């Protein structure tokens, strides 16, 4: 840091003895040592406080990152994502429906193959009658009457 050699230290010691005097030199060196200790303690305290502040900021950044990940996982919507991907790319053909257990092997073949037998789908269930208002009799009560 400082380029001080033995000759410079000898010059400083001689000047200190001449200026302060040999009688007060030990007291001055003791005071100088105590002052340097205080300066080192203050520097160490400042550095540890600064490092603690940096660690706290890193924890907050990590905590914010973890919150974002949790929110992203909470907002996970596979059906919505699928709808968005289908709407975004209408040029691609829709994938064929999954094969059911009762279908024949011919029904499961390539849809571009015109020689394959047409796929049979189960009949749709009949629509249930609409619920009657709370004061009106239902259709089941009307048939009993």
Automatic annotation (TrEMBL):
<keyword id="KW-0997">Cell inner membrane</keyword>
<protein>
    <recommendedName>
        <fullName>Sec-independent protein translocase protein TatB</fullName>
    </recommendedName>
</protein>
<dbReference type="GO" id="GO:0033281">
    <property type="term" value="C:TAT protein transport complex"/>
</dbReference>
<dbReference type="GO" id="GO:0043953">
    <property type="term" value="P:protein transport by the Tat complex"/>
</dbReference>
<dbReference type="InterPro" id="IPR003369">
    <property type="entry name" value="TatA/B/E"/>
</dbReference>
<keyword id="KW-0813">Transport</keyword>
<dbReference type="GO" id="GO:0008320">
    <property type="term" value="F:protein transmembrane transporter activity"/>
</dbReference>
<comment type="function">
    <text>Part of the twin-arginine translocation (Tat) system that transports large folded proteins containing a characteristic twin-arginine motif in their signal peptide across membranes. Together with TatC, TatB is part of a receptor directly interacting with Tat signal peptides. TatB may form an oligomeric binding site that transiently accommodates folded Tat precursor proteins before their translocation.</text>
</comment>
<keyword id="KW-1133">Transmembrane helix</keyword>
<dbReference type="InterPro" id="IPR018448">
    <property type="entry name" value="TatB"/>
</dbReference>
<keyword id="KW-0472">Membrane</keyword>
<comment type="subunit">
    <text>The Tat system comprises two distinct complexes: a TatABC complex, containing multiple copies of TatA, TatB and TatC subunits, and a separate TatA complex, containing only TatA subunits. Substrates initially bind to the TatABC complex, which probably triggers association of the separate TatA complex to form the active translocon.</text>
</comment>
<keyword id="KW-0812">Transmembrane</keyword>
<keyword id="KW-1003">Cell membrane</keyword>
<feature type="transmembrane region" description="Helical">
    <location>
        <begin position="6"/>
        <end position="22"/>
    </location>
</feature>
<feature type="compositionally biased region" description="Low complexity">
    <location>
        <begin position="100"/>
        <end position="145"/>
    </location>
</feature>
<dbReference type="Pfam" id="PF02416">
    <property type="entry name" value="TatA_B_E"/>
</dbReference>
<feature type="region of interest" description="Disordered">
    <location>
        <begin position="81"/>
        <end position="145"/>
    </location>
</feature>
<keyword id="KW-0811">Translocation</keyword>
<keyword id="KW-0653">Protein transport</keyword>
<comment type="similarity">
    <text>Belongs to the TatB family.</text>
</comment>
């Amino acid at each position: 840091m400082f380029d001080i050699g033995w000759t410079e230290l000898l010059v400083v010691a001689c000047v200190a003895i001449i200026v302060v005097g040999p009688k007060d030199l030990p007291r001055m060196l003791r005071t100088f040592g105590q002052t340097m200790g205080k300066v080192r303690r203050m520097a160490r305290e400042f550095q540890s406080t600064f490092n603690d502040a940096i660690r706290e900021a890193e924890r907050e950044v990590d905590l914010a990152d973890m919150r974002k990940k949790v929110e992203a996982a909470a907002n996970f919507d596979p059906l919505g994502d699928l709808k968005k991907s289908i709407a975004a790319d209408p040029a691609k053909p829709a994938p064929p429906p999954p094969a059911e257990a009762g279908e024949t092997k011919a029904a499961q073949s390539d849809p571009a193959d015109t020689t394959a037998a047409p796929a049979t789908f189960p009949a749709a269930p009949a629509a249930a009658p609409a619920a009657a208002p709370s004061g009106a009799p239902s259709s089941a009560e009307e048939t009993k009457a």
